[in-house]
Amino acid sequence: MTAATETGFLESSGHRIRWERHGNRNGRRWMFVHGxxxxxxxxEHLAFFDxxxxxxxxxxxxxxxxxxxxxxxxxxxxxxxxYDMERLxxxxxxxxxxxxxxxxxxxxxxxxxxxxxxxxxxxxxxxxFAPAPAILRLSEDVxxxxxxxxxxxxxxxxxxxxxxxxxxxxxxLTSGEPVRVRSTARLFxxxxxxxxxTTATDALFERLFDAETVASFILQAHYxxxxxxxxxxxxxxxxxxxxxxxxxxxxxxxxxMIAADWYRRAGLTARELPGIGHAALHPQMLRAIRRQVA
Length: 294
Fold this sequence. Notes:
Layout: E1 6-12, E2 15-23, E3 28-33, E4 54-59, H1 78-92, E5 97-102, H2 106-115, E6 120-126, H3 133-148, H4 165-173, H5 178-196, H6 202-208, H7 211-225, E7 245-250, H8 254-265, E8 269-273, H9 283-293
Parallel strand pairs: 3-4, 3-5, 5-6, 6-7, 7-8
Antiparallel strand pairs: 1-2, 2-4
Helix pairs in contact: 1-2, 3-5, 4-7
């Protein structure tokens, strides 16, 4: 893999947004939008692009990865991320760009294309998330099912009620109480796995559990508790850049299939890949993304 051609930090309302640029600076311009909320950009994500012909910008969203402060909740929302993306475009002097949003990153990518359609050449949403009411209801249902069917030897989370479950989770994750933080993080791993149509094991949790994972779940709970999804109407109203947008979804990706239908109703084209779950780096999904990006 080639080294980054440029790196830096974008100062934005108390946040420092880490970014790096890869590939051919004279190539087609792509901005990659990572998953989460609370994920990060990684070198593995460069596999979606041909660095000989693409100029690729990776960045870490507010509070994520190399951006600081870690897990900062103030001024951290979908809209703030979208405007960070626009500031990054201006910082690089790009007249226009294309967007690849993966998982949660599909939503900021779609919102950017909605708010700044004149700046977008194309946008691709793979293994997508959308704030469709059905997904938000499913997420809450899965949370309570996970609590009822607690599969783990790890202590069951306490203090999570039915009125504001994600707000309760946020309190638990930021409590500083090790047992409470650990058990709530295990709950979030269970929710993510069930929403993606996969399985979370205790062994997987032990491998993943660290301060960055907790920070990721804090941001996830923050977004859910505060309704920071600012949903675009999809009751027959077309996305203003729909003709340039598309989705790629595995048929085993439960939430992704709901999201793909939601985007389809907004006018985006959709492609389904049989037998694949929520896994953008699955070889078949990776090949499909590379073909779309080319």
